[in-house]
Amino acid sequence: MKILLSSYVFPPSVGGIETLSLLFAHKFKELGHELKIATETVEQSEVDKKFEIYRRAGFFKLRELYNWCDVALFNNISLKLNFPAIFTSCKTINSIHTWIHTTGAEATWQNKLKQKILKKDQTISISAAIANHLNTPSIIIPNPYQEDKYFLDEKINKTNDLIFAGRLVKDKGCDVLIKALVHLHKTNFYPNLRIIGEGEEQENLSQLINENNLSHQIEFMGQLKPEELNTQYSESNILVVPSVWEEPFGLVALEAIACGCVVIASNCGGLPDAVGPCGLFFTKGDDVELSLRIRELLESPQRVRSLLTHRDEHLSKHKPDHVAKRYLDVLQSACNQ
User: Fold this and answer.
1) Which of 2, 62, 117, 299 has the CA that lies 20 to 30 A from 165?
2) Are 288 and 264 found together in one domain?
3) Around Cβ 242, how many Cβ atoms within 10 Å?
4) Is residue 210 part of a domain?
């Protein structure tokens, strides 16, 4: 197939969409397909030597690219990049990675237009929650994780109880986790916690920790590189994902599971898809319920081992080769219509 991969952001920009788009680019080429890439990221990098990339192309160039390809994959919808395709007969697939609100405070004319575009195109959603949110039928293909960067290092002993990894902002709910430790502290139960990440909430979190005499249990580790994070996951028993915002997916859960952690996560958004059978859930924002889940797992190594029996099967659905082939099946099906 001749595939145009359209991604609003692309390396050297850094983020989840960029990582996934680059992964697709490598896998599509490895599997023998012709590939061109369109992006609004203007900066160039080493990847420009490996792929034919059109950065911030104009309307007519984009239309030319859509006429060239057999099918275009939009890795997250972009009005700027999607618009020229309307004036071609190009087959188009939209992979949706986040919420597109058309009602309430977050509704915008752009979102309403995006929903209209999706109704005429084939759509892929990264989680059941995203699929249920859209006003159009959607195929669910979950996100992959980077198996070359996140894996269990069996030479490392699991000496740490809990780990949190994410931006230190309100949405991620790290304060909910700390409050859960406050409840456990009052019952003379003192699990240790490593907090990975940086953000505007760090000062408030530090104050909450100091006010409740938890500083001997909790360590801020800062922002880590993937190889450093892999080590931290491999040393930890439980990843806690206490998001109060509904995550569209929750890649951090997959990465930790790959390193041998079980997960305790908020039961909302796409987190159930990411965690699968490898963890427990609690009502988002409920620090008391979270404290019970933490104690339940730390006091029952057998329960932890039971949850991890599903690890390999769950991860197999999220390996890059498997996910790329599922995308290619959808692209090929569109070409055959």
Assistant:
1) 299
2) yes
3) 24
4) yes
- Which of 267, 322, 272, 327 is closest to 125 using CA atoms? 327
Burial readout 147-172 (b: 16 or more C-beta within 10 A, e: otherwise): eeebbbeeebebebbbbbbbebeeeb
Amino acid, res. 54: Y
Give the integer Cα–Cα distance in Å for 253 and 126: 14
Residue 107 and residue 125 in one domain: yes
**241/167 same-domain check:** yes
Domain co-membership, 23 together with 133: yes
Edge-to-edge strands, sheet with 218-222: 218-222, 193-196, 160-165, 236-241, 262-266, 279-282
Domain that residue 247 falls in: 160-316
- Based on the structure, what is the number of domains in the chain? 2
Query: 3-class DSSP state for residue 45?
Result: coil
Cis peptide before 277 (omega within 30 of 0): no
Contact 300, 318 (CB under 8 A): no
What pTM value is reported for the model?
A: 0.92
Encode pLDDT of 43-90 as tens digits.
Answer: 999 999 999 999 999 999 999 999 999 999 999 999 999 999 989 999
CATH number at residue 71: 3.40.50.2000
Same domain? For 261 and 328 the reply is: no
- Six token digits for residue 251: 């890649």
Q: Which two tokens stand for residue 78?
A: 């972009």
153-192, pLDDT tens digit by residue?
989 999 999 999 999 999 999 999 999 999 999 999 999 9
